[in-house]
């Protein structure tokens, strides 16, 4: 009996050994596995030219995919370093021109009404990274209409103001958003992307989704960056609501500059538009103003094509001549809460608002401070 049991055990052991040799081991490094294709768009690094052949479409799938591979690195480096909040500030006179040469000690930043200590300060002209988000739908940009012509004029006109070292991406939206060219300083790629703006497709427009996803992509880009929105200001098809889009833009920290089209058409059709349509346009105007104000950008409402060069100049000056400020928050809690920011110019001796004098008349001038309205504190990683 014992001999039979021992013989059976030996036989089972041999069978298991043979099966183990034939079957692939999922834990072994000798089993060949397909490697994941490297991401063609990495928003966590500085923008680089090219690689727009396999670009995905936004909005819904791009952002998680673009940040999937580097999320762990970002969290690890964030935990190892002290949290630094960067705030880009513009100081404009009553004509919209940047005011230069404001000393460091004249700036004061309040976080939730608590003064912070500046640890970083720089000023000067710098290259910029811009995402052009262009509404191109059959509703207001139907082929060969005035809205179509204005949109193309504004888009091409802004591209011509860029300097060789500037990076730009072209994103068009109607029913969905499409990246026509990713961030590049190769103007031939940008021109090729712009040439695709010819005949619009759908009549819907997902402005909220397009803005939110673009801002999410740009949130990890360093340096001077902005979104240039060329649109009617009306959203008809986004998954995101206005409030959610607003919160998303606040969290991204990317300033939004908007150029609202169709102003002259609205004036000419004022007696023909119904109350509901007029209300839609007014609501769109307010949304563009809010996006700009809360992100540290500007909103423009040109009535005539001749106003566009001045608009482009104002945007370029604002982006290139910013004060880059930074501080380590007194409150280092990683609670994921939104913290309100206020930037002031003060006389450090008297603690009163700073008076800026006109260089020619030596009279006090009114000035405007543009900066993001706040940021969302990081969450602790468990």
Description:
The chain has two domains: 83-124 and 322-376, no CATH class; 128-320, von Willebrand factor, type A domain (Rossmann fold), CATH 3.40.50. Helix content is 32%, strand content 22%. It has helices spanning 2-22, 62-68, 71-80, 146-160, 187-194, 207-218, 242-252, 263-268, 275-295, 308-320, and strands at residues 85-93, 107-111, 114-115, 118-123, 128-135, 167-173, 177-184, 224-231, 256-260, 299-300, 323-327, 338-347, 352-353, 367-370, 374-376. The strands form three sheets. Strands 7-6-5-8-9-10 form a six-stranded mixed beta sheet, sandwiched between helices. Helix 2 (62-68) packs parallel to helix 6, helix 6 packs parallel to helix 7 (242-252) and helix 7 (242-252) runs parallel beside helix 9 (275-295). The model is unreliable at 1-53 and 57-80 (pLDDT under 50).
**CATH topology group of the largest domain:** Rossmann fold
| Secondary structure: number of strands | 15
Tell me what portion of residues adopts beta-strand conformation: 15-25%
Fraction of residues in helix: 25-40%
* Cα Rg: 27 Å
CATH superfamily of the largest domain: von Willebrand factor, type A domain
- Specify the biggest β-sheet: 6 strands, mixed
Please tell me what the overall shape is.
globular
CATH class category of the largest domain: Alpha Beta
Judging by the overall fold, what is the CATH architecture of the largest domain?
3-Layer(aba) Sandwich
Mean pLDDT: 82
Element order: H for helix, E for strand:
HHHEEEEEHEEHHEHEHHEHEEEEE
Terminus-to-terminus distance: 58 Å
**Cross-sheet strand order for the largest sheet:** 7-6-5-8-9-10
């Amino acid at each position: 009996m014992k001999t039979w049991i021992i013989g059976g055990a030996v036989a089972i052991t041999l069978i298991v050994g043979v099966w183990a040799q034939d079957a692939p081991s999922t834990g072994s490094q000798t089993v060949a596995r397909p490697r994941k294709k490297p991401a063609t768009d990495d928003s966590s690094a500085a923008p680089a030219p090219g690689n727009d052949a396999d670009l995905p479409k936004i909005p819904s799938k791009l952002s998680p995919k673009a940040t999937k591979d580097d999320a762990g690195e970002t969290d690890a480096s964030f935990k190892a370093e002290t949290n630094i909040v960067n705030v880009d500030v513009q100081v404009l006179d009553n004509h919209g021109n940047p005011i230069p040469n404001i000393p460091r000690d004249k700036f004061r930043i309040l976080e939730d009404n608590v003064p912070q200590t500046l640890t970083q300060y720089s000023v000067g002209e710098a290259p910029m990274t811009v995402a052009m988000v262009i509404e191109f739908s059959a509703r207001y940009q139907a082929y060969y209409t005035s809205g179509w012509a204005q949109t193309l004029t504004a888009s091409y006109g802004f591209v011509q103001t860029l300097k060789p070292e500037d990076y730009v991406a072209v994103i068009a939206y109607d029913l969905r958003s499409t990246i026509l060219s990713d961030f590049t300083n190769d103007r031939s790629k940008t021109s090729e992307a712009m040439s695709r703006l010819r005949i619009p497709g759908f009549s819907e427009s997902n402005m909220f989704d397009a803005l939110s996803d673009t801002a999410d992509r740009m949130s990890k880009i360093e340096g001077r960056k902005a979104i240039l929105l060329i649109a009617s200001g009306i959203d008809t098809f986004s998954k995101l609501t206005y409030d959610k889009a607003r919160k998303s833009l606040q969290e991204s920290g990317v300033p939004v500059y908007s150029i609202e089209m169709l102003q002259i058409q609205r004036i000419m059709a004022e007696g023909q538009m119904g109350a509901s349509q007029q209300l839609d346009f007014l609501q769109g105007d307010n949304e563009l103003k809010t996006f700009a104000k809360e992100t540290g950008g500007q909103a423009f409402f040109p009535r005539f094509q001749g106003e566009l060069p001045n608009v482009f100049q104002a945007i370029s000056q604002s982006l290139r001549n910013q004060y880059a400020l930074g501080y380590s928050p007194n409150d280092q809690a990683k609670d994921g809460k939104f913290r309100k920011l206020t930037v002031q110019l003060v006389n450090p001796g008297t603690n009163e608002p700073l008076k800026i004098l006109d260089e020619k008349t030596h009279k006090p001038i009114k000035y405007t401070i543009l900066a993001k309205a706040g940021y969302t504190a990081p969450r602790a990683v468990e």
